[in-house]
Design a protein that fits this description.
2 domains, mainly alpha
Length: 228
């Protein structure tokens, strides 16, 4: 609004007291316009939704874990063109155990009350430790399941090793991505960094059925006739 417009408006107002009040308001607005502008910006920012790390418990990564378990459940494997029931169930048990352990560790991680206050390096190391602990526990879990079904420990270790060989590229990309997330300036808050990590894990989880399929298709039929 320019000065001419203001003068024209004031001519239309007959009440001198009202003119004085309007003039005073306009003068204050002009003098303190910078302070007023900053206050408005702060007010708008305060109205933005407050992000809580616990809200990430609704992240799609948990749906992804459930989805890949169901996808692997319907996979069928064959030995010399004959349906191999044991190999098929072993694959599903492995995936189900891995998904359950990973979901549990992720929820426990997100509920840690210290997350928001952790410094950058501390949070990065915390994430890496969480990822390593997931791996250790799901390997231990599936070993117990398979050995309880009568599979020799040597054979169990062989299958797990075979899976890790095919899964190596995904795990290596996880580590590189974590380093990138915590080394860049694109993720400002701990919420942003953890969200980026969950997005990355979710992407890797969707590759799991393919890695499971390759692993068990490369097994021979040594488990076909055991009572599993």
């Amino acid at each position: 609004m320019n000065d001419r417009t203001i003068l024209n408006l004031m001519k239309l107002i007959d009440n001198p007291y009202l003119i004085s009040i309007i003039t005073l308001i306009i003068s204050i607005a002009i003098i303190f316009r910078k302070s007023i502008s900053n206050s408005v910006i702060k007010l708008l920012k305060s109205k933005k939704k407050v992000t809580r790390i616990e809200d990430l418990l609704e992240h799609n990564v948990f749906n992804s874990l459930e989805a890949v378990s169901q996808e692997v459940k319907v996979m069928k494997f064959y030995t010399h063109k004959d349906y191999d029931r044991v190999k098929s169930i072993m694959c599903y048990d492995f995936t189900k155990s891995k998904a359950k352990v990973c979901a549990s560790h992720m929820r426990e991680m997100l509920l840690n009350p210290r997350l928001r206050k952790m410094k950058n390096i501390e949070l990065k190391n915390f994430i890496i430790d969480a990822q390593n602990n997931m791996h250790k526990e799901y390997v231990s879990s599936v070993k117990q399941i398979w050995m309880s079904k009568g599979i020799a420990e040597e054979d169990v270790n062989y299958v797990i090793h075979l899976f890790e060989v095919f899964r190596y590229d995904v795990i290596a990309s996880f580590t590189k991505s974590i380093e990138s997330i915590f080394g860049s300036g694109f993720h400002h808050s701990n919420f942003d960094k953890i969200l980026a990590v969950l997005n990355m894990w979710s992407m890797g989880i969707h590759l799991l059925p393919k890695d499971m399929q390759i692993t068990f298709e490369n097994l021979n039929g040594k488990f076909k006739d055991i009572k599993y």
